[in-house]
Amino acid sequence: MSTAIESPAGGPESEAVSIAAERRWTIVVVAIVALLVLMMIVTGLHWASMPPSRVETVDVKTVHVRGEFVESNLGTAVASDGKVTVRLIAQQYSFVPQCIVVPADLPVTFRGTATDAIHGFIVGRTNANTMLIPGFVSTFTTSFHATGELLMPCHEYCGTGHEAMWGRVQVLPADEFLAKARAGERLSCVPR
Ligand code: CUA
Questions:
Q1: Strand order in the sheet with 148-153
Q2: Are residue 32 and residue 100 in the same domain, yes or no?
Q3: What number does the ligand 1 atom closest to the CA of 90 have?
Q4: Average pLDDT for residues 66-74, to the nearest whole number?
Q5: For 145, which of 85, 98, 105, 126 is 20 to 30 Å away at the CA?
Q6: Residue 57 lies in a domain
């Protein structure tokens, strides 16, 4: 579309100039839109390929006293087939356990829920990131590629203590982690 500016000094040349300028901007704008759409597709499919795929509920009234999220079952479990599962609970204003141990370079499945308000967490700069909602089980599987300690802040505003709600994640070399893990035990790095 061209809207040639007819100035008194204008003529066929100035119209050609403005048409060329508009064409350039059209190309730039189409390229920006195409880049943004491409970024959405790449980040959606490649980075965040762990949307909630199903709904799993848990009774928030009994979550502390029976079932998967009783205190003795929280922490990191290694199943007999080698699968690593972290179970955690969020409540105002802490995570249980406060310090989570995971192996590097092995798939780790997180399963968590909340008991009072909507909470959430992100682990360092990794893609381990979820909301925790009372009555629902949030789960995802990821792996950590660098050893060390990562901070795990609550990232959903959950009340006046929200900004003080932090956990930690210790990523150990896989062999060191597996040497600590014993069948039936729940690991954590909470000092006892
Ligand atoms: Cu829990 Cu914010």
A1: 99-103, 166-172, 148-153
A2: no
A3: 1
A4: 93
A5: 98
A6: no
Cα(29) to ligand 1 centroid in Å equals 40
- 88 beta partners: 112
Does residue 105 share a domain with residue 43? Answer: no
For residue 12, how far is the Cα from the chain centroid?
Answer: 58
Q: Which of 125, 115, 70, 110 is nearest to 94 (CA)?
A: 115
- What is the torsional sign of CA 146, 151, 153, 155? negative
pLDDT band (50, 70, 90) for residue 42: confident
Looking at the chain, the whole-number percentage of residues with pLDDT higher than 90 is 71
For residues 171 and 81, membership in a common domain is answered with yes
Kindly report the pTM of this predicted structure.
Answer: 0.72
Let me know if residue 62 belongs to a domain: no
C-alpha to C-alpha distance for 34 and 36, rounded to whole angstroms: 5
Ligand 1 center–CA 154 separation, angstroms? 4
158 lines ligand 1 (CB under 6 A): yes
Task: Answer for the pair 15, 4: CB distance below 8 angstroms, yes or no.
Answer: yes
**pLDDT band at 8, cuts 50/70/90?**
low
186 in a structural domain: no
Grouping H, G, I as helix, E, B as strand and the rest as coil, residue 118 is coil
